[in-house]
Amino acid sequence: QIQRALRALSIPLERLHVMKGHMIEDMCKGLSRQTHAQAKVRMLPTYICSTPNGTEKGNFLVVELCQSQVRTLLVTLYGDGNLSPQMMYKIYDLPEGITQGEGEALFDFIAQCVTQFLAETTSPDTDSEQYLPLGFVFPFTCRQTQLNKAELLSWSKGFNCSGVVGKDVVELLQAAIDKQARPDKEGEASGGGGWFKSRKSSQSAPSQSRHVEVVALMNDTVGTMMTCSMEGRACEVAMVADKGSNCCFMAEAYLVETTDETSGRMCVNTEWGCFGDDGTLNDLFTPYDQAVDEESSNPGEKRFEKMVGTLYLGEIVRHMLIALTAEKAMFTGTDAAVLKEKGVFTMQHLLEIVNNEDSITEVKRILEALGLQPSERDCGRMQQICRAVVGRAATFHATGLAAILSYMCQTRDLESLMVNVGVEGELFAGYPRFEEILLSVSRLLAPECMATILASRDGSGRGAAMVTAVALRLTAQRRAVDEVLAPLRLSRDDLVKVQALMRDEMDRGLGKETNPSASVRMLPTYVTHTPDGTEKGDFLALDLGGTNFRVLVVRITEDGITMASEIYVIPVSIMQGSGEELFDHIIDCIIDFQTKQNLVAQMLPLGFTFSFPCQQVGLDKALLLTWTKGFSASGCVGQDVVQLLRDAAKRKRHLGMQVVALVNDTVGTMMACGYDDPKCEIGLIVGTGTNACYMEEMKNVGTVEGDQGRMCINMEWGAFGDNGCLDHLFTHFDQVVDETTINPGKQRFEKLISGMYLGEIVRQILVVMTEKELLFQGKPCPKLQTKDIFKTKFLSTIELDGDSAANNGIGVDSNGLALRQIRAILNELELDASFEDCVLMREVCQTVSLRAAQLCAAGLAAVVEKMRENRGVDQLSVTVGVDGTLYKLHPCFSNNLQTTLKDLAPNCNVTFMLSEDGSGKGAALVAAVADRAAN
Ligand code: ADP
Ligand code: MG
């Protein structure tokens, strides 16, 4: 019989695995918006999104409502790591009957405790601060909607004050405190309850001259987590193993669907005491648990808590003894009637027995003190029973913990998780083997996780002060972050204005007289048609001015286009040497290519993609306006680039090619996409730089003779704003980035948008945020001072999760994954970043890339609207051929661009088409189209 009883309490590992699975399921249920209402494990959001980082400082007041007391605490933090905060506390007993009376009386009493405490502990002369933030520890189930907004769902633990359920308890406490602080109402306030002697003059109560504000409300479990977070290491899980049982942990915020928070993490109060209330633990329920439950004030509820809470463990033992006595397995032949008395066997008894394993006499003494007459054998059995009951409680705690650890590990997409777990409570403190069981069993059930147990030294009060301090730190930090980023955030009006300015500049650039003063040069390209699909032939193409210099052969047939190409290096000495050397080198590369491709015998037409601003005077005649992108070969600016190439060919006696067209890369992009989509009449590049071209009506092109048909205009829009028209948009960061480029004051629009600059802008912001101690706790980051160390591709990595993770179910992976990659970047930069630093860095990147996409959209909106007007249509359907690594690889750029464009140009239906090798294919197509037009 005794073995059977003990067996019922010992749970096989497989069953614990199942229990862990159920716990995870229930946690997910509690977090999901759809199932939250029915969930037994309620997973209440706490709105605590950060753990202390040691920089918090100031005075913080805590008031904690306990079973029969109100505890007040004043904590002074020095921001020095906060290892040894100064603390003063006082405990007040709750007056008889107040827990059953009116809510107002309860809150008035708490407020009076605060007033009294402040009067005794602080003096108005020495404490200059007028504002005192307060954290309120309120250990009842609340629906929290903000850190300082929490509606009481139900009383428990013997409390039943009227008029509080359904109300915001923060508001009730604040009102009671404010009532105390008003001198004219003083008599009424402190006289109302009558628990404190009323003070006559307002000057005697210092709290009246300062403003106490309830900044945060929290559960005791959360307070424990925060208390344990203070020793310089973050604690992300806390467990209270006391009269009741509960656990909280830092969950990924986007998983907490009952709140709108999507970035970072939020502490979730599991309220796991109700686990099993839907029957999932029924098979683990012994007849003794059943008996305990039936005798409780809330039968059928809090099933998990009733197996693990210290309020119940003594009772479980008592019911086992009753049953075994009835079965004549214990206390045979003696009077055991005393066991019928509820609560006679206490937790204290239980702990004394399990903690004195070797001492039978101790067991005998305890049982005899209860009025029993145990035999030697009874004492031995008693030990076994007690051990089994506490052991099961510890094992169940471990199972719950394993569920939480595995869940955290999974949702953070980690292979393994190392985490600190704060623990407190009677069971933990009173039963030394608890920690050992907790660790070994949770390790068996969640081998991928490694928990370190931190004992909470002084309960939740200190932690509550930390929550309050963190809340204030975050509010101040948010304000400071917004201040830094505000100039980079553009309103719709800003964008409409940019669109209008771009339109003005386009018109000025097209006008013969106004062109010289326009910042957008609107260069004619002499490309008058886009492909129609009938082009044919073999062509050579050159691509100079992109990331690589390439020579290509392009075969256009009825069945499509095939290409072969080779990349050649242009040494810096040649890029910056003489023009003759440069073009000789280019011809050498062409000869090498044609030889390798067996193309020397033919004379092939050549299209030359030349991605530098040129004043084109014919399809094959283009004067170089300036070099960019690190080129500075002498004797070229002002010269016809085609002629320079032809001269070099002559010098090298190369006859295998004939230059027929010079093509800008935007035009190449448009043409390449135009071959597949006849609606493609715009080209856009967002790579190292940014630029656009589009088909304009000849009659609008004042800089070229003739009014018939259309011509592609290379806008050179990167220079938009060089005349000062965008000055109002430039931030401090843009100024600094501009000043450190080789062309300060030039290409101002491009410097807000393209790949060469976004990383630098982000870096400048990070530097300033570090100086302002908003990042990396203000620690200096030497590597971050290096120009160009923050690559634009980092933005792509860092922003990868964002929307995609938050908006869809599979976000779990991408969220964690991106974080892992962010860590790799941080290592590369030698940055010691916390999770919150990562979240803030992501916000910085998002702000910068969003602005870039929006500005690009405003420019494009001006283009499509102009085309729509040109053609006199209400609705324009047009395709944009796009190239550039930033556009192609950044996770949000293209979406942001398209969304903004729709908003700014609602009458244009714009399709975006990615160009594949526009420079090569496009140049050949320009040559081919020219050929077709000529014939
Ligand atoms: P180019 O414009 O010179 O022809 P690309 O279109 O390849 O060259 O663009 C190169 C630029 O793209 C670089 O300046 C770099 O900053 C940026 N870049 C490279 N990789 C990424 C990425 N993964 N995400 C965003 N930008 C990137
Ligand atoms: Mg390119």
TrEMBL record:
Catalyzed reactions per annotation: D-fructose + ATP = D-fructose 6-phosphate + ADP + H(+); D-glucose + ATP = D-glucose 6-phosphate + ADP + H(+); a D-hexose + ATP = a D-hexose 6-phosphate + ADP + H(+)
Keyword Zinc among UniProt keywords: no
Biological process (GO), any one: glucose metabolic process
Superkingdom, natural source: Eukaryota
Protein EC: 2.7.1.1
Annotated metabolic or biological route of this protein: Carbohydrate degradation; glycolysis; D-glyceraldehyde 3-phosphate and glycerone phosphate from D-glucose: step 1/4; Carbohydrate metabolism; hexose metabolism
GO cellular component terms listed in the entry, alphabetical order: cytosol; mitochondrion
Keywords: ATP-binding, Glycolysis, Kinase, Nucleotide-binding, Transferase
Domain Hexokinase C-terminal stretches: 237-470, 681-929
GO MF assignments: ATP binding; D-glucose binding; fructokinase activity; glucokinase activity; mannokinase activity
Region (Disordered): 181-210
Domain Hexokinase N-terminal positions: 2-229, 481-675
Enzyme class: transferase
Family named by the database record: Belongs to the hexokinase family.
Name of the protein in question: hexokinase
UniProt organism field: Cardinalis cardinalis (Northern cardinal)
Gene: Hk3
